[in-house]
Design goal:
heterotrimer; B: about 325 residues; mainly alpha; two-stranded antiparallel ribbon; about 70% helix; globular; C: Rossmann fold; 6-stranded mixed beta sheet; 4-stranded antiparallel beta sheet; disordered N terminus
């Protein structure tokens, strides 16, 4: 049932959680649109938020491959994000101690290679360990990476960070100057103050287009691999690794593949961030990022790509929402601890009431074209009642 | 210089051991890796801060620490234990998500502890209102710079650890705790009230952590992040000593603490190694990184640690 | 390995290890009873364990155990609690590494191989307590069974999608066929977490068959299964055996084992006590002693 040709039928075909999420997203989008039209939210700021949500969605995609598909507890998300950012920064930035001036597209490639190498370095010792050891080891190794980046100034400029990172489209024929060449647009027809769409706006639009392209590509790739025999082996590893081994699957190799794939996607988010922020520093490897992404994945629905996407948007909503509250002085505390509290409470509530998240995989994951796509359990979806591993 | 480093290693180890024992106990008996353990230490430290501020010196002092401080210490221990028990009752007990789910939940709890403290106290550093002391004169000729406060930390830790040892070996509760740690199913069917024992484990484990937190604040400074920052080092100690063994955790704590403080000795290691340039060395900044690397190496080659119970992979 | 002896229970004369091991020390002397230890003179051996030893600290779980499984049989493996049956399974399927001794599947030494490699050589095993398979229907879970699926290669998902689709469709047809043969096709689209323990055992068996094993090791397949399903399980094993699959079966339920298996190997305290037909085993004094003595 296509959304366009038969919206009613499409709606009826969705499971309850899907309907809930769709309704929520539409409602939220409407709210934002209202804010835009009435001038409550500046267009550039709005685009900035979308860009941020896209970045978190990429991080969530990556972690979802590792934890959601395969059950790998990876607490080194921040390290891969940082490696991605630093990789491209050190290649392309003017203040890079190592290189500099290399086109950002090559920087992207460098970042991915570095992330892949780091994934192997972290994965080789840890992927043979049982789940909780992997958690501890990954957080330790992430710290080692952060400490190295912080202290080896000859490599990374240490605590000063890397400035002068060019925009991603530097050197591209049309897009490099797109923000400047686009005419300013003035909108007076709406209620609220006059909206001026100038260079900032076009720059933000370009960035959003970039991240949405990245998100789109990753989503398509992940959707294919999730529905495949490859994905199925990973999901079996998550529930019952020994059974997979007994059936002839080299589970170590599969786990490594999932780990590397996830890490590459996380690094992609870092690359986007570097060319958005135009500066990276050791603070960008703050472990709190790791836990934001964990909340996004668990909240969205472990194992589901759409869930990860949703989770990314929710995280940005939480971050901005708490800042909002602070600005309005409703709550007499700082933003940072409030956010921390909120994240902590959400984790606990999720694990207590809905460990599988809002939108876990709703349908069977069999290769496209082999079975028809109707959900097998319209009310509950295929997901059992709880996620997370059983006791070993 | 080496003696000085060793002495400071002992002091730092005392703090780590107080943390690692608690973590190991909870791991063995409650059955999961408690990522909120570091922040439990922070709870102890800040409870002591508040108490000491309220109670004051109370006249008199031992080893340069006013009596009021020891009252604050007791409160710190108690508060940490109370908070842990409440968390167990309200949160962990009702969860049916397996040990990984509990691990993830404990991260949420860690954030809650830290956030509440940060909201109450701001994220800046602070100290106990105790006058800093000068190093003990008698030890200076040996190149050892420790203050009476440091000695107090060491002595207190020894007292607490000895107390725990006595509890584990010579009391009924201790016997039950050891039974549960070795074989939970067998313990349950042999009539041990496992939920009671678990509760006491939380009390003891968190209490020790609270004490560690108070001393950490005394040794260094207080900040809402202090516990979490130390958590990884404590995990390294537990893993090195062997998960499932309390005595292993003690040993691991001592080793990791010593290695951490002895890191400056490695700053000249470049001169010793053949290919590496002479100026190269492992600086103090890498002290923690060293602990983590040791931890990973242990997990790779001897996951049971030094004294563990065979539950490696 | 040796020339066949007229007495099928005797061991090879030239094998130095067998006489000294495998229960000789533990048997109560009974002049009329057959020689102790396993039958090591079989032809067409699909699985062979030579003198396996495995110790966990001070506990010797497997103490010079040797046996053979002949192709086309349902061989039973029984023994009192703590005899080391599961340990032996783990050793033979690569989940544990033996301290000494070796294992051969279809004549190839597989002792140091990983479980997945041993599976590749034709040995598939199930587990006593299967874990819950979350987020999958029964047929999705079964689709993991077939070996060497092109879709299991990440690269092929993008370079050869048609091949992947073809194999997936074919495998799905196999899954549905085998579920039909097991008479549980109505469970195909049920979430795997929603079926009963007994049904899960049937699914596990069916899934293992999709891997086309030369020998299938079943670790207590009837444990915790209600009598009706247990009968069904036995029927299925018998049916699959008639179609040519070799089985090695650990079970505590004597009725289950004795009705299905022949020969039956008896394990006691880590080594093979004896091997014989169900009747021989059930009436043997040493076996009775082993179970009662404990």
């Amino acid at each position: 049932m296509s959304l366009v040709s038969d919206p009613k039928g499409y709606w009826a075909d969705l499971t309850r959680p899907e309907q809930g999420v769709l309704a929520f997203v539409l409602g939220f989008a409407l709210l934002l649109l209202l804010g835009l039209l009435t001038g409550g939210i500046g267009p550039s700021y709005f685009l900035f938020l979308v860009g941020l949500a896209g970045m978190y969605s990429l991080l969530s995609f990556g972690l979802n491959v590792q934890w959601g598909y395969s059950g790998l507890i990876n607490f080194s998300v921040a390290a891969f994000f940082g490696i991605g950012a630093y990789g491209t920064a050190l290649a392309s930035a003017s203040s890079s101690p190592l290189a500099g001036g290399i086109p950002p597209v090559v920087g992207l490639f460098v970042a991915l290679v570095l992330a892949g190498v780091l994934a192997l370095l972290i994965g080789i010792p840890t992927l043979r360990l049982r789940a909780d050891y992997l958690a501890i080891a990954s957080i330790g190794l992430a710290e080692v990476v952060r400490i190295i980046i912080l202290n080896e100034g000859w490599l990374t400029n240490g605590s000063a960070g890397v400035r002068g990172i060019p925009g991603f489209f530097e050197g591209w024929p049309v897009l490099e100057t797109f923000p400047e060449t686009m005419p300013g647009v003035i909108i007076t027809a709406l209620p609220g103050p006059t909206i001026v769409l100038g260079t900032n706006f076009w720059q933000a639009l370009l960035n959003v287009a970039l991240v949405l392209t990245l998100v789109g590509i990753c989503y398509l790739v992940l959707r294919r691999v999730h529905r495949s025999p490859w994905g199925r082996v990973l999901r079996t590893i998550r529930s019952d690794e020994d059974a997979a081994r007994a059936l002839g699957k080299n589970t170590y190799s599969y786990k490594m593949q999932a780990f590397v794939l996830g890490s590459l996607i996380m690094a992609l988010a870092g690359v986007f961030y570097a060319h958005l922020n135009l500066y990276v520093g050791p603070g960008d490897l703050n472990p709190i990022t790791t836990f934001y992404v964990w909340v996004a994945v668990i909240l969205g629905g472990s194992g589901s790509n759409r869930g990860a996407l949703f989770g990314g948007f929710v995280i940005v909503a939480i971050q901005q929402g708490t800042r909002f509250l602070n600005e309005f002085g409703w709550i007499p505390v700082d933003v940072a601890p409030l956010r921390l509290l909120l994240i902590g409470v959400i984790i606990v509530l999720l694990m207590r009431f809905r460990p599988q998240g809002v939108l876990p995989p709703q349908r069977e994951l069999i290769w496209r074209g082999v079975v028809d796509d109707a959900p097998s359990q319209p009310e509950r979806g295929v997901r059992g009642s709880k996620a997370g591993e059983s006791d070993d | 210089m080496v003696l000085d480093l060793l002495a400071n290693g002992l002091i730092y180890s005392s703090i780590i051991v107080l943390g690692s024992i608690g973590l190991s106990l909870v791991y063995s008996i409650a059955g999961f890796a408690n990522f909120a353990h570091g922040d439990t230490m922070t709870v102890g430290a800040y409870s002591a801060l508040v108490t000491f501020g309220a109670v004051g010196g109370l006249g008199g002092a031992i080893l340069g620490l006013p009596f009021g401080f020891f009252v604050a210490l007791a409160v710190g221990i108690a508060m940490a234990a109370v908070v842990a028990v409440v968390t167990e009752k309200v949160v962990y007990e009702g969860l049916d998500v397996g040990s990984i789910g509990l691990l993830i939940t404990s991260i949420g709890i860690a954030f809650v502890y830290r956030a509440v403290i940060q909201m109450g106290f701001s994220s800046d550093f602070t100290r106990y209102d105790i006058q800093a002391l000068r190093p003990i004169e008698a030890l200076l000729p040996y190149g050892i710079r420790v203050t009476e406060h440091d000695v107090a930390i060491f002595v207190s830790a020894v007292v607490l650890v000895t107390g725990l040892h006595v509890l584990l070996q010579y009391t009924d509760l201790g016997r039950k705790m050891r039974a549960m740690a070795d074989n939970p199913d067998l313990a349950r069917v042999s009539g041990i009230r496992t939920d009671r024992v678990k509760l006491w484990t939380w009390v003891i484990g968190a209490g020790l952590a609270g004490a560690g937190g108070v001393f950490l604040g005394l040794y260094g400074r207080l900040a809402p992040r202090m516990g979490f920052d130390l958590l990884l080092v404590i995990f390294a100690a537990v893993i090195l000593g062997g998960i499932g063994s309390v005595y292993g955790a003690m040993l691991g704590g001592v080793l990791i603490g010593m290695i951490n403080q002895l890191t400056p000795l490695l700053s000249g290691v470049g001169a010793l190694l053949p290919i590496v340039p002479d100026g190269w060395g492992i600086g103090l900044e890498y002290a923690n990184a060293l602990a983590f690397l040791i931890m990973v190496v242990v997990l790779l080659f001897r996951p049971n640690g030094i004294a563990g119970d065979g539950e490696g992979t | 390995m040796t020339e066949p002896q007229p007495d099928s229970e005797s061991e090879s004369a030239g094998d130095p290890t067998s006489a000294a091991t495998a229960g000789a020390a533990t048997q109560t002397a009974s002049p009329a009873s057959p020689r102790s230890g396993a039958d090591r003179s079989k032809e067409d051996v699909v699985l062979e364990a030579h003198d396996l030893v495995k110790a966990f600290g001070a506990l010797v779980a497997t103490d010079h155990a040797s046996f053979q499984v002949e192709r086309g049989t349902i061989t039973g493996l029984i023994g009192p609690n703590g005899a080391g049956k599961s340990t032996l399974f783990n050793l033979v399927s690569g989940f544990y590494e033996p301290d000494s001794g070796h294992v051969e599947v279809n004549g190839t030494d597989v002792t140091d191989l990983e479980p997945y490699e041993i599976a590749d050589h034709g040995l598939i095993r199930t587990f006593q307590t299967p874990r819950k398979l979350e987020g999958m229907t029964v047929r999705e879970a079964m689709l993991v069974g077939p070996q060497r699926q092109p879709g299991e290669s990440f690269v092929k998902l993008f370079t050869a999608p048609d091949e992947v689709r073809e194999h997936e469709a074919r495998n799905l047809a196999d899954v549905e066929r085998i579920l039909g043969e097991f008479e549980i096709d109505h469970l195909a689209t049920q979430p795997a977490t929603k079926i009963s323990g007994g049904q899960m055992k049937l699914v596990e068996l069916a899934r293992a068959m999709l891997a086309e094993p030369d020998i299938l090791l079943l670790d207590e397949p009837a444990a915790g299964v209600n009598p009706t399903l247990r009968k069904k399980l036995a029927e299925q094993i018998r049916r699959l055996h008639d179609q040519g699959t070799t089985f090695l079966l650990i079970e505590h339920d004597m009725e289950f084992v004795m009705s299905l298996a022949d020969p039956v190997i008896v394990l006691d305290r880590g080594s093979v006590l004896m091997e014989g037909t169900p009747d021989e085993v059930q009436t043997d004094d040493r076996v009775i002693d082993a179970y009662l003595g404990g």
